[in-house]
Write a structure and sequence with these properties.
Length: about 300
Amino acid sequence: MNQWLISVEELHQLKGSNIVIFDCRFSLAYHNMGKTLYQQGHIPGAHHVDMEKDLSGPKGLHGGRHPLPEIEVFSTRMRRCGVNHNTLVVAYDNNRLAGAARLWWLLGFFGHHRVKILNGGLSAWQAAGFSVTDDDPASSEGDFEAMENLSLVVDHHWVRKHLTNRHITLIDSREAPRYLGREEPIDPAMGHIPGAVNAPWQQVTNEAGFARPQEQQQKIWQALPIADNPVVYCGSGITACVNLLSLSLAGMDNTRLYAGSWSDWCSYPTNPIEPPRTEQPRTEPSRTGPSAAESTQVEPPSSL
């Protein structure tokens, strides 16, 4: 069993009452889709967690599109699903690990480190012939108590202060066209934070949602000028967690998340941007159905 990854066969063989499974599927455009998919079928015993309500906090003028959840809200949700201080938590999705990695990172941030991500997600589970159910899981109240580790996160003030610090590397996890300022389908400004290097999060997995082997994870970061203290961001702090997972799999754990990410950074008119800031009309997603970039199936969501 990998430090952070668990195979469908390993999960299927796990027995015991001190295991809690979370279904982390979500859609950027359709916030109810994760719940809908969960109700249609999930791994037996799994609980649904909502990206907007459980894994994110209230939105404001600043702070990004997916602020970190409030500590007591997150603690209460975990306890109600039966999470204890020593519970093994297993997270899965069908978003190339994006939703599961968000829960993995949040649990670590809140002091819980017995976490595994199901490699390949629900698709791999079903491909192996294992059953799904639409039954609600049974659970008893857990004793989980969150304690924030603020050394794992930074805000825009910190980023701005350290823009020229050669010991810090900013890693932009979005797709190259967004990083380069050629397109921006979600946020009101195009470009990237000055000095950031680009490492699109989708390269961490293959198209089926399996994490690439450790040596390939290491090659991702060896190809970039990474300093001693990587700080990772994306559009709103979700898919950056996939890169944080990759860095950990590659043996680099001195990492931090810029939680507000690009959607927070560009909300401050005085923050510098590369290329220089221009007005960007916001493109609303189609409401006729989820695009490939917004799907909760094997195809990845946009760099949230």
